Amino acid sequence: MSCFTFGKVDLVPTVEEYLTLLRCSRIQVDRAYSKAVNVPTFLKKLMNITGMSEQWVTARIKQKGDSKCILWKNLKDLILAHPDMKKKVDVFSLSIYGLVVFPKALGHVDEEVTDLFD
């Protein structure tokens, strides 16, 4: 008995199911291993998620160890003051993933977390 079977039914998700669940539209499904093309930088991803200017985001990106991060306090201030409700929810979701689900540096949201929202 395998941990991914129930009776005689194989429950391992297919590549297509993972693509749907993760909303990965840029992945080439005909290849076993593929890289996303034109991957945006951390700066561009944060600009897209937050809706803020390049200057705002650049001023708040910090180098923490081997990766870039943004301080949780900056995201919290943005959540409280952002005029766009959808962006507030996006930034809040990013914060939850960065601080609770995939924490790397205490009080910071790591750049790898932004891949979930790109």
UniProtKB/TrEMBL annotation:
Short name of one Pfam family: DUF7745
Residue ranges annotated for the DUF7745 domain, each copy included: 1-117
InterPro entries linked: DUF7745
Protein name, as recorded: DUF7745 domain-containing protein
